[in-house]
């Protein structure tokens, strides 16, 4: 007999009756998109309408232990797909983010990549569009610099080629300069309390933490310091 585990969906009592034909199929009272499968008038397993259709489950179809395993696998796939759909309804995700969340939730197997391939084909997920929106949002609303955004895109599974293209599109020299000036203006009072000899390092370190590279910071550092002193 198949060993019971925490992911098992079927009834142990009904399993002992297999192989047996489906004796009845009922729509579940609490969820009209799910169905209860019975063998010899005993509840065996609950399935989605997707599983019911794909496996052609109907009255009289014989359920064997191996077929039951196939039903469970199909239910796992359906559940994983529904879970990832719910995640996408909240916000956009990269492919890697979705995959990591599915694994963390306990879903695994080759069907995860199959679902993600389907999502990509239907453009439910698109790493390039995700990266473009992520970079634009973090630059506009969080004042993150290109280095920090690039690092975060890599962590989210965005390829180096896509990340670099997006960074180059998002960050022009003038936009970078204006963003740094905005950041320093917001902290002007704080820097005015610092001795002048310490301001250079404070400004440099702060902008580095925000994700701006040293070349761009040094290029505009004197102008940023003048912004603080009002010169």
UniProtKB/TrEMBL annotation:
Ranges for domain RecX third three-helical: 181-217
Coiled-coil regions, chain positions: none
Pfam family for this entry, one: RecX_HTH3
Primary site of residence: cytoplasm
RecX first three-helical domain span: 80-118
Entry's localization field: Cytoplasm
Keyword Transmembrane helix: no
Keyword set, alphabetical order: Cytoplasm
InterPro entries: RecX_HTH_1st, RecX_HTH_2nd, RecX_HTH_3rd, Regulatory_RecX, WH-like_DNA-bd_sf
Residue ranges occupied by any RecX second three-helical domain in the UniProt entry: 126-166
One of the GO biological process terms: regulation of DNA repair
Gene Ontology CC entries for this record: cytoplasm
Keyword set includes Transferase: no
Record-stated family: Belongs to the RecX family.
Purpose of the protein: Modulates RecA activity.
Name assigned to this protein: Regulatory protein RecX
Organism (species): Gracilimonas sediminicola
Lineage: Bacteria, Pseudomonadati, Balneolota, Balneolia, Balneolales
Gene name of the record: recX
């Amino acid at each position: 007999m198949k060993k019971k585990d925490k992911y098992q969906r079927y009834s142990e009592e009904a399993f002992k009756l297999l192989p047996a034909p489906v004796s009845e199929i009922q729509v579940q009272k609490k969820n009209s998109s799910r169905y209860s499968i019975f063998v010899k008038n005993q509840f065996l397993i609950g399935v989605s309408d997707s599983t019911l259709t794909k496996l052609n489950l109907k009255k009289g179809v014989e359920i064997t232990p191996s077929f039951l395993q196939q039903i469970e696998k199909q239910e796992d796939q359906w559940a994983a797909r529904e879970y990832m759909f719910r995640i996408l309804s909240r916000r956009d995700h990269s492919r890697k983010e979705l995959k990591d969340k599915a694994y963390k939730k306990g879903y695994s197997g080759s069907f995860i990549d199959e679902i993600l391939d389907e999502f990509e084909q239907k453009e439910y997920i698109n790493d390039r569009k995700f990266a473009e929106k992520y970079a634009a949002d973090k630059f506009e609303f969080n004042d993150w610099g290109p280095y920090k955004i690039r690092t975060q895109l890599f962590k989210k599974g965005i390829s180096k080629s896509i990340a670099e293209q997006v960074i180059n599109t998002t960050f022009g020299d003038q936009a970078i300069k204006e963003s740094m000036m905005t950041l320093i203006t917001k902290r002007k009072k704080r820097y005015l309390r610092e001795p002048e000899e310490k301001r250079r390092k404070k400004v440099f370190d702060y902008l580095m933490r925000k994700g701006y590279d040293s070349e761009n910071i040094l290029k505009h550092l004197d102008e940023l310091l003048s912004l603080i002193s009002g010169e």
